[in-house]
Amino acid sequence: MISYLTLIQEKTFRYFYDFAHPSCGLARERNSSARHCKPLVAPGFGVMALIIGMERGFITRDQGDDETYQNIRFPRNMRSLAWRLAALA
Fold first, then answer.
1. Whole-angstrom distance, CA of residue 27 vs CA of residue 21
2. Residues in contact with 41: Cβ distance below 8 Å, sequence separation at least 6, in sequence order
3. Domain ranges, ordered by start, for the chain
4. pTM above 0.70, yes or no
5. Residue percentage of the chain with pLDDT more than 70
6. In a designed cystine with 53, which of 11, 26, 58, 86 is the match (CB 3.0 to 4.6 A)?
């Protein structure tokens, strides 16, 4: 039987994992139909949810590593894009 705490942890993890933005991987602020990322607070909770998900066996370590890498890579790619666009101006 699954404990109540495990159930809450898995449901919370699933929210951040299943509803992450498909292209940038960042967690959304809420499950809405908005197509853009809102990187304020939710991405931090999303990263912590990935750690819990890996620790509790909800996803494999490789899946967690891939998602974490995507989260970290996205802002760096955006910063690089901003520099390229500024150079063209």
1. 6
2. 29
3. 4-88
4. no
5. 63
6. 58
Asked if residues 46 and 16 have their Cβ atoms less than 8 Å apart, the reply is yes
| pLDDT higher than 70, residue 56 | yes
CA distance 26 to 36: 10
Supply the DSSP string of the chain, one letter for each residue.
Answer: ---HHHHHHHHHHHHHHHTS-TTT-PPPSSS-S--S---SSHHHHHHHHHHHHHHHTSS-HHHHHHHHHHHHHHHHHHHHHHHHHHHH-
Give the orientation angle of helix 42-56 with respect to helix 4-18, to 10 degrees: 130
Residues contacting residue 55 through CB under 8 Å, at least 6 positions apart:
none
Whole-number pLDDT of residue 31: 53
Asked if the model's pLDDT at residue 9 lies above 60, the reply is yes
37 pLDDT exceeds 80?
Answer: no
